[in-house]
Design a protein that fits this description.
It is a single chain. The protein is α+β, with helices and mostly antiparallel strands. It is built from six helices and twelve strands. It has one domain. Strands 3, 4, 5, 8, 9, 10, 11 and 12 form an eight-stranded antiparallel beta sheet that branches. Strands 1-2 form a two-stranded antiparallel sheet. Strands 6-7 form a two-stranded antiparallel sheet. The model has no long low-confidence stretch (mean pLDDT 80).
């Protein structure tokens, strides 16, 4: 199994794949009153592709999963317990589904003409086989280890641009979440002085 938890540049759409969405993208860009986007697509496809690659480059899948898990009721309750006593605990997760939609937005500017933003959808769907999370003092600090399968699909509206790309991923070393983790619960305020 792969140990990479990032979506890399070679998995992003090519010019040919972007061409499949040419009509719908051209229609959106033409909303600014310019038929240029529809009539001279060659001016825009490289710009759109470069901006899309920039928006998706090095997407941290573990960070995305951490944000989703941090909203779970069971995890927030554990965060509250660890916030009270300052402890660190591990939570073992069993098999569960995964579906997260991310929405990279890109802007295209042609001279003085600023075209409407293009809002893509990066859909992550799959199954978590198992995972071990580290919760400490009210924070979701790390993904200690995990095994999952994921399908990644890039869409514009209902138009599939690329995917689904299937990956089997296994993480056997701890992966700390960015910025010290995700806040699950606040530590209680000290009692007022008498």
């Amino acid at each position: 199994m792969a140990d990479s938890f990032t979506l890399t540049l070679d998995e992003l759409p090519s010019r040919e794949q972007l061409e499949h969405a040419r009509q719908v993208l051209g229609d959106k860009l033409a909303e600014a009153g310019s038929e240029l986007a529809r009539s001279d697509w060659g001016l825009f496809d490289d710009v759109i592709l470069d901006k899309l690659r920039e928006a998706l480059r090095g997407l941290d899948l573990v960070g995305v999963l951490g944000q989703a898990w941090a909203a779970a009721k069971e995890l927030r309750e554990l965060g509250g317990e660890t916030a009270l006593d300052g402890s660190t605990r591990k939570l073992k997760l069993g098999q569960h589904p995964l579906r997260i939609d991310l929405h990279p937005v890109i802007s295209v500017k042609c001279g003085e003409l600023e075209l409407p933003e293009l809002r893509f959808t990066l859909r992550l769907e799959g199954e978590i086989a198992w995972a071990v999370l580290v919760v400490s003092a009210g924070m979701l600090e790390a993904l200690e280890k995990a095994s999952l399968s994921i399908n990644t699909t890039l869409l514009y509206g209902a138009q599939v641009i690329k995917g689904p790309l299937a990956k089997e991923l296994q993480l056997l070393a701890p992966h700390p979440f960015p910025n010290g983790g995700y806040r699950l619960a606040e530590a209680p305020a000290p009692p007022p002085l008498a």
